Input
Amino acid sequence: MKLRLVAAVSAAALALSACSSSSSDGGEKPAAPDASAATATPLVEISPLTGLALSKGRPDNPVFVVKIENTAAGAPQYGLDKADLVLEELVEGGLTRLAAFFYSSIPSKVGHVRSLRTSDIGIAGPVGGQIVASGGANGAYNKVEKSGITVFSEDAGSAGFSSDPAKYRPYNRLINLKTVAKKAKRSAIKGPYLPWTPADAPAAAAAAATGRAATSATVRFSNATSTTWKLAGGKWTRTNGHAAPNKDFEADTMVVVFAKVGDAGYTDPAGNPVPETVFEGKGDAMVFHGEQVDTVTWRKPGLDEGLSFTAADGSPYTIDPGKVFIELVPKDAGSVTLR
Output
């Protein structure tokens, strides 16, 4: 697992490597400094999903990616406020579904859980995410598993699923991630999901305004689905989301990624062609942080690779550590309106 490490090393500790093995006048070798007396800050691993320090070290659990219904039929959504990162993706009929990433916190109630899609390979792949879903079409399920991604599916008998008595199938499935975690094994994480701004980056550079200002936005996936956003208290939040009251995901940064959408090669039970978002390659993106909205270029070399960004002047563009919501929008059919 290759995660960025942060450390502060004292001058006394650095002096250890600078000491000569003998004195310059040939006399007795000076005593080595007492390493225990050095004031060094321990190495702290950084979360691949938030860029924030994991003060207690890596969790024993893998990254779980839970597929969550994103229509009124599945409301209310549970557990989003505990997620480290959330991504919205296109599914059939012009609707969308959420992929909620859980790593630092493992809730006992998440949902309502729905089925996986082949698009999830590129979504979960960068951090070795293990997908939790109620099921999926045979072709999609087999393709995801062949990619090397572990799947916990109710259809396959995975433990931890339950019914919400206030809902009806297929919108009533809940998952206890603590139960799933008992069976799960940690998987390798190649690196961070996003290029995080280093903690020691110059404050002036980090605060430089290069984009336009906005305090609300509409992200359109299709004629059937748009997600509306507002900036409140420094956080970007959905205004038409389906989360339980005061339990929605609050994003420090919201990123819109415009990506190509192809045909997954099968239809849903209603006969709608199932789309497959190609989450690799490159394209345009918009980054919302505070009132600033920057237009950048995104790159993702492979389905199991993390994202990187390039500013308009060609320089690397980083994301400030915190919670991020990614809107994976169709390149040709999607749009963003700022206000």
In short: Residues 5-45 form one domain. Helices lie at 11-18, 120-124, 138-146, 177-183, 203-207. The chain is about 10% helix and 30% strand. The first helix runs from residue 11 to 18.
